[in-house]
Amino acid sequence: MTPLTGLPGPFLEAVQRELPADFLSTDAADLATFGRDWTKVHEPRPSALALPRSTDEVSRLLRLCSEHRVPVVPSGGRTGLAAGAVAARGELVVSLDRMRKMGPVDVLGATVRVEAGAVTEAVHQHVAPHGLTWPVDFASKGSSQVGGNIATNAGGVKVIRYGLTRQWVLGLTVVTASGTVLELNGALEKNNTGIDLRQLFIGSEGTLGIITEATLKLTRVPEALNVFLFAVPDLAGVLALFREARTGPFVVMAYEFFTEKCQARLRRHRNVRVPLSAPSDYYVLIEVERGEPEALEAWITSLFERGLVTDGTLAQHGAQAAELWALREGISESLSATGLPHKNDVSLPIQELEGFCSELESLFEARYPGWEIALFGHIGDGNLHINVMKPDDLTREEFLKRTHEADHAIFSLVKKYHGSISAEHGIGLLKKDYLPYSRSAEELAIMRSIKRALDPLNLMNPGKIIDV
Amino acid sequence: MTPLTGLPGPFLEAVQRELPADFLSTDAADLATFGRDWTKVHEPRPSALALPRSTDEVSRLLRLCSEHRVPVVPSGGRTGLAAGAVAARGELVVSLDRMRKMGPVDVLGATVRVEAGAVTEAVHQHVAPHGLTWPVDFASKGSSQVGGNIATNAGGVKVIRYGLTRQWVLGLTVVTASGTVLELNGALEKNNTGIDLRQLFIGSEGTLGIITEATLKLTRVPEALNVFLFAVPDLAGVLALFREARTGPFVVMAYEFFTEKCQARLRRHRNVRVPLSAPSDYYVLIEVERGEPEALEAWITSLFERGLVTDGTLAQHGAQAAELWALREGISESLSATGLPHKNDVSLPIQELEGFCSELESLFEARYPGWEIALFGHIGDGNLHINVMKPDDLTREEFLKRTHEADHAIFSLVKKYHGSISAEHGIGLLKKDYLPYSRSAEELAIMRSIKRALDPLNLMNPGKIIDV
To answer: Distance between alpha carbon A355 and the CA centroid of its chain, in Å?
Structure first.
């Protein structure tokens, strides 16, 4: 084995002695790949990559890491957007890529046990023949892994219908910093026996332990879906329509909004057009389950009669539905392809959205006249994606400097309106400095005390979320 | 003020100085009422009762308790079945009875903010005019309080449809042992900013702090419901029918089972009868939403044709549905009225239920021949209520002694089949000694370290769940 910079010799000898020969890699391409997630802000500098094949191997590795004070970064599909899986300080990356096994589907209990390296989409395909699904679903499902989804409590476009990942996890196997293996909750729906330790690890971004296996809760594949696209005059209209959708003759699966500015970028990039007669400042996409055709038509008619929408369409078949979804799902890519977006992922109580967006607009008009803001999001769960686009007359550096200031102003507004600085992406390294906008000093103190209790040597993804 | 035994003089003087005149009570009737929950095993011995009117008063009180080392028992509606709210060691009981305010319903966000002393049923009535409900629902809803529901992560008969209380809590205000007020998560659906501290307090039975306010997540009142009653030959039949119900033409709201032995007790007590032509050993009650009449009839026909049920009925109107529900809901009362039941509330992975019940029966036949076991439960979520009835030829004392041994045997089986010794009632004082059957030594150690981090003086409901 090549000597590894940064890792203690006795640790390497112990790994060589106690774990398989191909357990560690220092291949430069591996380190470049496994040292980072989808963010580009921090330079990856992992010391090595570990590729365990079992919970037991993870446990043996972490016991050695603890003994030799080797910090680790747990690594899933690395699709994160908060630099939670970046090894920027010479950590050992522990990838779950070799742990992708999926057990038989328990149809009666509607559960499946998988290793944490199983890819989200592979889980969907594995359970689909039984008419079941794991309703954790988002654009990166082809790469993201179950363990990463759970460690970041992943969201997505179906949260209004199914909730976050947290709700779809029955049991966890977790290895803590000392190498202790915790079997949490098994496959039980109900288990009121003291503190639910599962909940600590869900969303803790690998700072308390490594999730190695999980028992997932499944649900029935939804019935036939319908997709609407509506034009509304303003954000108040988006919210008024949301109120109607809440009581519509169907179950809302997704309620997304985006602005004409987003569509202008999408047209430049993809040459696709909103299939409505005239452009509008705001659009709403609604996906629903279980609507009867006549009831849906009557509902649309009533919206027009009451002036709640200025235009609208209902997809007549799956291909049309996919075209409508492409108007929403192509936005993020188009913003990056046609300019330099600075992204924020905030959430607000739904009733505060209008006031927040109005002040946000005023703030940018006053301090950054001419800057373009592309707004879209999962309004049904209060999640707003704010994309500040680089003006042509600013250099990249000047833009990044000013968006840094802008973030403080945005997050001050988020705080004022009782929102969160990170709805679903998490904190990682990227939002760490801003955490006090969403969490009080007392909360941070408790988080630190829990971190110290579970990881006294601060070896688990150190420096992510909080410093201890 | 009368001198209070057990409370330090300087503490009483400080309370008198800093809190309202009617803040403390030592009235004997108050102490008898507020010192206990629905369990009868431990003698209540509270030193006094505190009745705060606000979060601020709770905070000031707990600061004084911390300063003067006064242990407290938080008290909600006291409908608990695990002695989690019993003040057996001279604690100060802190009742939320004066904190019952409910805020305006946020229809757009489908949330409502309430004080923790609000009664469950009052919340239902408060939000019903908006077509909304808080789907935390069980027999004691007329007395149980929101704070107690959350502190015990209450279950009930609709868990298969809606999940546990945990899923219906957006925000919490919690006062910790030091008097620190934590505002956790506000009214946000999505907030991925580090450890979700709400989850620590949900289900921790008042051992980490006092929940004083909550923002509840609401959902639409369900559409018209249908209720079936079926006879099946055995437990395997109960589970086979469950598999059919999972894929039936409707949404399952409740899937309950009970045995003929339960019905025999119900007939002795209430003289009500199962409206089926011949008695059967096992019955299943299923409540469903959104079934079309023809689809329901076709489904029933198919069950008969395939021999999955030996008899069955579908309630034709609300009164009939209520009669069917009474066959299930009257069981617990009838067991107590016609004998002495020793109750256990366990859960199992659904696919383990048959093996578990079969071994349970053998175990009792071998060790306690002639003892009667009345089984019923929310099979859809794996929750089994095991009621061991006192044989006529045993004294009460002998029976309690032998059920204590029986509990060890039952919980050993629960452990063998990967179940939980407490599905929904919690641990409190009653199940504390049995906790190692469900939680590993490593889990208990982490629970203790969290307890010490949040309550270093062990003043919050001391002795409940675990000793530290």
So the answer is: 25
